[in-house]
Specification:
This protein is mainly alpha-helical. Among the domains are: about 130 residues, Bacterial polysaccharide co-polymerase-like; about 100 residues, no CATH class. Helix content is about 65%, strand content about 5%. The strands form two sheets. The protein has a three-stranded antiparallel β-sheet. Strands 2-3 form a two-stranded antiparallel sheet. Helix 5 packs across helix 7. It is elongated and about 125 Å long. The termini are far apart.
Length: about 350
């Protein structure tokens, strides 16, 4: 009997599952709740520290394809010629690609970029400052160049905490790299450098001489021929307007002073004598304004033809002439109605 009970107990223990149930999980959680809480708080604090004190780093990537390099070593343009100017990357792409990567990673290039972008902008998110060398060192440290495998493509990556700065800095790095590439591989020599500097000096001297000449002309009151002609035309137009205005005023005053005389009738069958109509001041002002406007439009027509260079059939000239025709018609009607105005 005892033997049978022992066998049954062994079979019952073997049938029980060996895994953990939900009760075991609760037991472990409540038993180690302080440890779990401490680790949770530590994780939150670490995340907050990284978020506030360690800002994320942004990257900008560019790829440069190096097909060949021009060298001043010969006159032949054939890559297969021994004295060729064109140097293509070798089978491993090591010689030329490594040389170009050294240009990209040089401190001089980083210093040029720091001067153009501004050290204060580059160092703003990493402690601040205006030190040029520190900004150049940061650019050099955050710049990564690589050429995977035997490829002739150089991958350039620049990283910085400021998202608005990564692209301008990388763009300036590539621009300055191309300039350095040209200077290194297409170096014109000492004599050509001397000629370039001499040409720049002559250009500056010429500009200085032209500035002095302009200043002397201003002091002497010398103007160009076109400016003189334009000034004379304006003066003539002004005098003509003043003359027309004076004649109109004289006619108005004369008309106001003269009284029309009524002639005596010889008999009842005689023809009536037509007397001159008195000119009102309003008509005189209207005539004066018409004359001024007419002279102004004539001057504008002359400017279009002489100064502006418009053709006779151009739209501006036609429009001005239509205005002149209308004003002349109005002026002619006033002169016919009031001969005293002429």
């Amino acid at each position: 009997m005892n033997t049978e009970e022992t066998i049954m107990n062994d079979e019952f223990r073997q049938a029980q599952p060996s895994g953990m149930d939900i009760g075991d999980v609760y037991y472990i959680v409540f038993r180690h709740k302080w440890k779990i809480g401490v680790f949770f708080v530590a994780g939150v604090l670490a995340a907050a520290y990284l978020y506030f004190l360690k800002p994320p780093v942004y990257q900008s990537k560019a790829k440069l394809l190096v097909r060949y390099v021009l060298e001043r070593e010969g006159k032949s343009l054939s890559p297969s010629a021994p004295n060729s100017e064109i140097k293509t990357p070798d089978s491993a792409g090591a010689n030329i690609i490594n040389a170009e990567m050294e240009i990209l990673n040089s401190f001089d290039l980083a210093a040029q970029v720091a001067d153009l972008i501004g050290p204060e902008k580059i160092l703003a998110k990493v402690g601040g400052g205006t030190d040029r060398s520190e900004a150049a060192a940061l650019i050099e440290h955050n710049l990564v160049t690589e050429a995977p495998g035997k490829s002739s493509v150089i991958t350039v990556v620049f990283a910085h905490p400021d998202p608005e700065l990564v692209q301008p800095v990388l763009r300036q790095i590539i621009t300055n790299y191309l300039d350095q590439h040209f200077k290194i591989h297409r170096a014109p020599g000492v004599f050509d450098d001397f000629l370039a500097k001499k040409a720049e000096e002559l250009r500056l001297d010429l500009k200085e001489t032209e500035d002095k000449l302009i200043e002397l002309k201003k002091q002497a009151g010398v103007v160009s021929v076109e400016d003189t002609k334009r000034a004379y035309a304006d003066q003539i137009s002004k005098i003509s307007l003043e003359l027309v205005s004076a004649e109109a005023e004289r006619a108005a005053q004369q008309a106001a002073l003269e009284e029309p005389k009524q002639p005596a009738l010889l008999n009842s069958f005689s023809n009536p004598v037509v007397t001159e109509q008195k000119v009102s001041l309003e008509k005189v002002e209207e005539y004066k304004n018409l004359s001024l406007r007419l002279d102004s439009f004539r001057k504008r027509e002359n400017d279009y033809l002489t100064v502006g260079g418009y053709a006779e059939t151009s739209t501006p000239v036609k429009s001005v002439r239509e205005q002149i025709t209308g004003l002349e018609s109005q002026k002619r009607k006033l002169e016919e109605a009031y001969p005293q105005l002429t």
